[in-house]
Structure formats: structure tokens, C-alpha cells
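Lab channel / #folding
Pinned by the channel admin:
"Please post every new chain as: sequence first, then the C-alpha cells as a reply. Keep commentary short and put observations after the output so the thread stays searchable."

First post following the new format, from NK:
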Amino acid sequence: MAHRFELISMPASREPVSLLAVDRAVSELRRGRIVAVRGGGGTAALVQAAEAATPEGLRELASMSQASPVLVVTARRAAVLGLGHSRAKVVSVAAGGGLTAEAIRDLADPLSDPPAVTPDLSIAEAAAYDCDSAAVSLAKRARLLPAAVTANLVNPEADDLAAWTTRHDLLLVDAGDIFQYEKTAARTLRKVSEARVPLPDAPETRIMAFRPVDGGLEHLAILIGDPRPGEPVLTRLHSECFTGDLLGSLRCDCGDQLQGAIREIAAAGSGILLYLAQEGRGIGLVNKLRAYELQDRGFDTMDANEQLGFDADERVYLPAAQMLRQLGFDRIRLMTNNPGKVSALSRCGVGVVARVPHAFPANKHNESYLRTKAARGGHLF
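Reply from TO:
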């Protein structure tokens, strides 16, 4: 049964604090530092990105938390490693003698040396909204591998968690703020700039930049012609693709889709192209390049994402729905080959009155990629 996504309200004064806490934690994680995550029921854990694991960091985690660190990965990654299948989305991996930093990196990164999956490895399911699940979500938000090293904080000196983390110069973030980040960021999107930008195929074009209240990543609305609110506007949702859009990479069809959408909207008279900051189907540029290397080793585009531990598609469409609403449009004609986009936007409250096909000829470099999207992703060509 399809579920409708809604933006859950929180006190307006709380939104900037919530977003800032997650943004700061992301920054710390990307720099290899430890952050503290507060869960429900008085639980807390110390967290570090798996790809930043070092012997010194593991010793520090164990010393401060007074617990043994474990590796937390997605169930997809655990299955790839042959550690069994789980209904939970996230699992923790432990070893009888403890995990070394080298073993952690090898288990988390499919491009490392093949990890030695020894019999003493064990997995445990993480609850949907506990500290371990929050740690993996935070790693994804940081555009790192979706894996973290965590240690339950059982140090008796940490009873006053806020004071303890301050003394140890650690950032503290609530698990709930991590889980709500995408919804909160989408809800707080505001137009921050607008300019006329004539394009070769669409001289009457305006670009509007939308930014969440925390100053996070901007999404762009490219308005071609003079689309009228109240009418089902011709719309293209395009996730940014540095390699395809800017460099003209032949590995995907993104560049063709972007330029083709501009031409088609201009030919129709008016429409909107939303350019979303969701590189690599939401996994980020670095992870997309990792996925490319895996594809060169024989994995298809979806298997490569899953080898890394991601879902086949990590994109969210709440920002697109929020931008359309602010522009005055609640019904659109969507240019896409992906029926999943139609249903995702519908769940976000946008009426898709028609799907407009948007396909381009393949080349020898992206034939396999396009076949996979059709066969496994349900794309219609």
C-alpha cells in the first residue's frame, strides 16, 4: 500500500537548531572526528565514519565510551559480505577479538582488499530509530560510505550527557534530528535569489535558487518562458550530474536529458526544470565514482550501489514538491522515463496528470546502463 509523505511540523524556533546540529555533525564526521548521538530512552553512542577508522580512533572510542566499538553497515552491505540477510535496514558487525581499523575499512569498502569474513564475525539487527541507524544515516548525509563505527556510551561519568560531551569537545546530536533532517530541510526551503539567464535554446529563462534555513545545499528552479500557476505545467526533475551535465560523460544519458529537456520545454512554450542537488541518485559524487569503478569490475549500475551499501536509488523528492508549491504549481506534466518519480511526487502531494516520455539514443558506453534501468529499475524507453 502506498504511503503519502507529509512534512511534520515542529516548533519554528526548533528548526534552525535541529538542522545546524546535523550539519555540524556531518562536518565532524567528514573530518574523521568522533560525534555523540543521543537516542531514545536515555541511550547514547559515540560515532565515527568507518572510512576514517584508525587504531588511535578505535582506542579513543573504547576509552571514552567504556564499550567495545562495532561496525554498523546497511543490511544490503552485510548481505553482500555474506553475513546473512536481515529485515532490518541496518546491522552491527562485531568480532570476538574486536575489529581492527583495517578490517573495518575492508568490510565497509568494496574497493578495499577482499575482507576476511571469519567465523567469529557476528551481526545484530539495529532498531529502526536507534543510535546505530542514526549513525548510518549521518554517514549517508555526509556523502561518505554508509557505514560507521559506534560504541555505546556506558561511561558512568556521562550521566549528564551534554556536560560530558562539552568537556570532551564532542558535538552532540539527537538521533531524531538526523532522521528528520531531509524533511526539515525541505520544509524550510526558501527562494534566495533569481536572475534572467538566456540559454541558447531558451532565451527567455529565469533561474531561482532555493536554500534551506540552515544554509545547506541549494536546489535550482529553471523557469523557461512564462509558465502559468494553476495549469499542469510541463516539468522535468533533473538530479545534478557533474560528469554528464558538465563534462559530457558518455557513461550516462544525463547530459542528453538535461539539454533535451531545455529544448523540449522551450518548444512547448513554457515549463519548469528543477535541478536538484542529488548527485549520483543521492549518494554523492565520490561514491558515484566508486560505483563507476565497481561497474568497470563487472557490476551493473544498481548492483554497484548495493555493493557500496546504498539502496539502488537514494533520492528524495520532498524538495521538488516544496519548490513547486512555492512557485504556485500543484499539478504537472512530468517529463520522465521513471514511473517511480511519478509515484514519489504523488506521495509528496503533487498531482502528476501525465507522464511525458523523455528518452534519447544510447551509445556504446551507456547501452548496458540504460538496459539495467529498464530491466531492473522499471524505466520506460
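NK: The chain is about 40% helix and 20% strand.
TO: also worth noting, Residues 205 and 224 are 4 Å apart (CA to CA).
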